[in-house]
Amino acid sequence: MSSAPAPVLRTAYQKSVAEYWNNEKDPVNLQLGDVDGLYHHHYGLGDYDPSVLEGPEATREARITEELHRLESAQADVLLDHLGPIAPEQRLLDAGCGRGGTSIMANARFGCRADGVSISRAQVDFANEQARKRGVDDKVNYHFANMLDTGLPTGAFQGIWNNESTMYVDLFELFAEHARQLAFGGRYVVITGCSNDVTGGRSKAVSRIDEHYTCNIHPRSAYFKAMAANGLVPMNVVDLTADAIPYWELRAQSSLATGVEDPFLTAYKEGSFHYLLIAADRI
Questions:
Q1: Which residue spans within the chain are E strands per DSSP?
Q2: How far apart are CA 4 and CA 181, in angstroms?
Q3: Confidence check: pLDDT of 1 > 60
Q4: 239-268, pLDDT tens digit by residue?
Q5: DSSP tag of 5
Q6: Do the domain assignments include residue 161?
Q7: Residue 215 in contact with residue 168, Cβ under 8 Å?
């Protein structure tokens, strides 16, 4: 007899996180996605065009929104760049997929199958609808599943990524599951905010970010310890902090600002918080 599958939401904390994202309808996510139908749940990278702050006042907010969206899609491109070559017959996994924008970008770039998982049923339903609207639902699918135990096949994925979703889980559990799912020689990429091991735990700004998102930001060293314990060998480590600051400076001038902009800018500039990309190979 086969045992019943484990429930997706297993702890009170996971249930609270799922409830938060099921109810989340933040304009800073939805209005940016409305620009071109790519809905992200991460921040942006690169310098913004200062001309968006000039020109007619009547169209100022629309210009800022379009520029913020350009920066967040540029961030997704940086992540996909670090996956390395992906063949159309290979498979990718977006762990903590949000509303699914990066998976759609991955399919458009590589022509491969892309799966996403989220513990928010609302996000999964939204993302699958976007894939259907784009006519890519034969290749891009989103699943109501726990990224710590997805139920997806062992060794089936050439690439897996977390884009600003690791702060909700235990890293040792997460990387054990990723190592199980990755093919040998496959690539794992994470982009995340992480605290400075020396000063981050004392930073009021980092604590405010945790409180805002109901998350638990990990220290930088925790990523490398958990990777080493699970056969993931870092090949590229890129500190993106300086490239992340312009996005927050522009967002602070937008009507879509949520109040978390100042904590991010303070934490980055005081050095208590880093925006980090790690690309690691499965050995």
A1: 91-95, 113-118, 140-144, 157-163, 182-195, 232-239, 273-282
A2: 21
A3: no
A4: 999 999 999 999 999 999 999 999 999 999
A5: P
A6: yes
A7: yes
The two structure tokens encoding residue 112: 């491969």
Q: What is the Cα gyration radius of the chain?
A: 18
Contact 218, 194 (CB under 8 A): yes
**Residue 226 counted as domain residue:** yes
The pLDDT score that the predictor gives to residue 6 is: 79
Alpha-carbon span 74 to 148, nearest angstrom? 28
Q: Could you read off the pLDDT of 69-93 as tens digits, one per residue?
A: 999 999 999 999 999 999 999 999 9
Q: What does the chain come to in residues?
A: 283
Which of 26, 62, 41, 74 is closest to 254 using CA atoms? Answer: 62
Domain extent at residue 90:
16-282
CA–CA dist 251, 26 (Å, integer) = 14
Q: What's the domain count of the chain?
A: 1
What is the rounded distance in angstroms from the CA atom of residue 39 to the CA atom of residue 83? Answer: 21
Q: Examine residue 255 and state whether it is found in any structural domain, yes or no.
A: yes
CA–CA distances in Å: residue 102 to residues 35, 39, 99, 105, 245: 15, 8, 9, 5, 21
**Rounded CA separation 276/102 (Å):** 18
Evaluate whether 175 touches 232 at the Cβ level (below 8 Å): yes
